[in-house]
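Progress note, project year one: complex with zinc ion.
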Amino acid sequence: MQTLNLDLAERSYPIVVGAGALARADLIAGALAQPRAVIVSNETVAPLHLAKLKAPLTAAGIDTLDVILPDGEEYKDWPTLNRIFDALLANRCERSTTLIALGGGVIGDITGFAAACYQRGVPFIQAPTTLLAQVDSSVGGKTAINHPLGKNMIGAFHQPQLVLADTDTLATLPLREFRSGLAEVIKYGLIRDPAFLAWLEANTDALLAREPQALAEAIVRSCRNKAEVVAADERESGERALLNLGHTFGHAIETGCGYGVWLHGEAIAVGMLMAAELSRRLGWIDSAAVERIEALFVRCGLPVQGPALGVERYLELMAHDKKVQDGKLRLVLLRSAGEAVLSSAAPAADIAAAIAARCRAE
Amino acid sequence: MQTLNLDLAERSYPIVVGAGALARADLIAGALAQPRAVIVSNETVAPLHLAKLKAPLTAAGIDTLDVILPDGEEYKDWPTLNRIFDALLANRCERSTTLIALGGGVIGDITGFAAACYQRGVPFIQAPTTLLAQVDSSVGGKTAINHPLGKNMIGAFHQPQLVLADTDTLATLPLREFRSGLAEVIKYGLIRDPAFLAWLEANTDALLAREPQALAEAIVRSCRNKAEVVAADERESGERALLNLGHTFGHAIETGCGYGVWLHGEAIAVGMLMAAELSRRLGWIDSAAVERIEALFVRCGLPVQGPALGVERYLELMAHDKKVQDGKLRLVLLRSAGEAVLSSAAPAADIAAAIAARCRAE
Ligand SMILES: NC(=O)c1ccc[n+]([C@@H]2O[C@H](COP(=O)([O-])OP(=O)(O)OC[C@H]3O[C@@H](n4cnc5c(N)ncnc54)[C@H](O)[C@@H]3O)[C@@H](O)[C@H]2O)c1
Ligand SMILES: NC(=O)c1ccc[n+]([C@@H]2O[C@H](COP(=O)([O-])OP(=O)(O)OC[C@H]3O[C@@H](n4cnc5c(N)ncnc54)[C@H](O)[C@@H]3O)[C@@H](O)[C@H]2O)c1
Ligand SMILES: [Zn+2]
Ligand SMILES: [Zn+2]
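Model obtained:
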């Protein structure tokens, strides 16, 4: 088990990574304000992993209540959020009741937002069970639900008390979800950690075989990158925006095809290639760098071409993205494979051309 | 025009009180991050006061969009909140778009919560138009909507950039609403400002006549009290809870009778008398003190007896209140008429007796 710390003064918290982390009732108990917790999970994850979390808590004298939600991004919405509030209120949960999110990014985001809003804020713990959630969404305090007009439009910054990333849970993760998580792992290499990028290229096979050592290493190095960025810029006023490499393009794909058709990691893999292609057009990186990134995605089984939405539709969807400031689209681009920058320098024609180069023809 | 400051380090903001404050487009413009604002108001307030706010902004080159909601506490709910989000998204409002709440506490609370959640937080300005909102809800950053199982159960702490309390707007306020606001004004005297309590007793007639000087004085002294308390305890971990004098009882009345039957100030007036009666039973204040408070409420036209819900129902509703910690009810009680304390010392039998003494028989 390895522990790293997200350093945010009085909001600092530990990130515990390793096999069996879910069973660490001692760590959870230490983070609770009262011997009671509400576990929020979904219909897929609960049968597979809930007992591993719940039994040790019960044995430790902690009273737990489960809220099991339906599974899917389409349930990251207000009616489902309200089911959490209903359960909390029906069970008279108080300001000191802690919520525990057991699941992927959807469960983490909706549970975190419920914790942010219930009685104006209660504590919560992240117990991520997808690779994506372990390396990205569970760390950093961004919480949200979707709105019919846009993903993650309603949310809050609310930091967890503790993150427990149990690598054992990844054994049951569907291959496509696992690959999708790898896209976020690779992202850290691309934006700020060239040594990690090289390590990933050298260890792709071990990762795809889900070798425990390799997994733990990839998760810890990803979380360390994310923790450093968030510690420097909790509210995304600067550096944190670099974590959105590929996301403005990727969100357009996710929204344009309807939630759930493309996985988040698949969409941002293509989005990162669009950003790379745009960076190449600006003369910042060469074709070899773009091909190197593409090759890694291909080996990971990730898509390297977007859906045929039409360039106009991509641009329209991107204009709805939060990364718009004063009407101008700010994009994360690459200075090299290992260094990202935030820029509004790209001419509209180049943005359109980069999209066209990386999506299927209509 | 008088200005006081709520001192919260980087979240500090000015509270501007006086006739014509709504027209201070200069102050608003200084608080905006872009020349654009979304005004949220309701169907009652907009026809009366929107133009006074909007015309000077338009003249100052600030683009405004109005979102006019239906009027009533029953609309402080998710579907109505969603109408704000719909408008913001349909108009592609960005992270730097400022919301302005023009109305009473309902509009202030729902708009503040919309600002807290939209894209994980945008700036907002409070332009309160009821006495209650000017002396209480617009100051301090508490925002919320109601849930069918409890008032203000879903919310956030989100401080405004600026509060503009225009005393002119109170001229159109229905008498019952005005009186209700006086209950919150008197509350400040009771919990921490005996000199202000004496001033209120000496100036009741001038206040009821809505004399501009008296009004401004009462609002400024109220806001100063609230600002001091909030500055010392933004997140309500201690002293701020004293602002809830009468509120646990009062919320039971509001919920028990259905939102809107009792006004908030009416309910907390009775609640404050229940707290006073309970304090008397604990031997902390004498009957004369209780009668003094009752006399002031009577002169202000406020109720001094609660509805006949039955003591059991009061207790049940109070157990749902946020002021429960580890299953024990913490109440704000009076050490004297001018000093409140938070206490869980009251025996259940005394709580029941205090309620029974101050509510109509079933
Ligand atoms: N808050 C943030 O900072 C942040 C960052 C990135 C993504 N996100 C959000 O995260 C979400 C995507 O997260 P995700 O990719 O984890 O999706 P997800 O939560 O939908 O999980 C993917 C699927 O895997 C299932 N699953 C989860 N754990 C499993 C396990 N151990 N075994 C078998 N099946 C399992 C889930 O039930 C689901 O069907 C999106 O809503 C995205 O917006 C948030
Ligand atoms: N956030 C906080 O700290 C805090 C504190 C106290 C109360 N509150 C909340 O505030 C709400 C009560 O606020 P309220 O008493 O202002 O109620 P309100 O907002 O419902 O206003 C009362 C009525 O007066 C009307 N009105 C408002 N201004 C007017 C004007 N100038 N002329 C004529 N009519 C006018 C309104 O349309 C409404 O019909 C409750 O929801 C309560 O929970 C919040
Ligand atoms: Zn992502
Ligand atoms: Zn109140």
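The mean pLDDT of chain B is 95.
The radius of gyration of chain B is 20 Å.
No further modelling is planned for this target in the current period.
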